[in-house]
Amino acid sequence: MPDKQPEIIVVPDFSLLIETAAKRFAARVSKAGPRRAICLTGGSTPKPLYQRLATEPYRSELPWSSIHWFWGDDRFVPLGDERSNAAMARAAFLDHLPIPPANVHAIPTNAANPHKAARLYEAELKDFYRGSLLNAQCPLFDLVLMGLGSDGHTASLFPGQPALDEKERWVVGVEHAGFAPFVPRVSLTFPSLASTREMIFLVSGLEKRNAVDRALSGQDIPAARAHALGTLVWLMDRDAAPEVYPVSSGESSRAV
Ligand code: 6PG
Q: How many CB atoms lie within 10 A of CB 44?
């Protein structure tokens, strides 16, 4: 279990959650070097954030051509399938911005099976990283966005599954999803997700509050195992945040 305390940011409502996430995203990207790498999450929560990034001022301000895009997980479905995390992000913003196609690194869900897809994606990550061993001094990503399921899963790392304990592989195939949509998955593991300057959990809604509380109070649920070489942030709206965390007055409040 990670020992670093996360930054807790609570905002009053969903629209402020998206605005805060967009500002934080832009700040991180502007700090990053010439070869930026962002790892996107799937699900429904981040879609308005992705759509917001395709609008002003971000549309004009961000260095789109120097950012590489990856996914923390995807459903093992055809690229055009409505359940595809890559399809969602492409439709929400990636396909509407000046991003070189070679910079969009979707998980190859057209591979023979999820395990083959995982091997191929791990090779693509290592090729981008220019190395096959993660170096704590040299994070793979500048920013990793994470979601949270009401069961405590994150990415496609589900309660009770062996992938939670994976220490060597960067990417694994997940035959049986522990949460809807119940299709096979491909997921990065905690070691590769952790290789980032910043990790932001983007969480909204009352249905997530119990899982947030369990994660932040040290219970061993998948999301609690997520950690980052750099900054770990839990960015939540009022509904998702346990009562103990007040709405942040402009800066983050550390976990108590
Ligand atoms: C996925 C996601 C998953 C998601 C959570 C929350 O592929 O489904 O990576 O981890 O972030 O299930 O999803 P919602 O944002 O839709 O609640």
A: 10
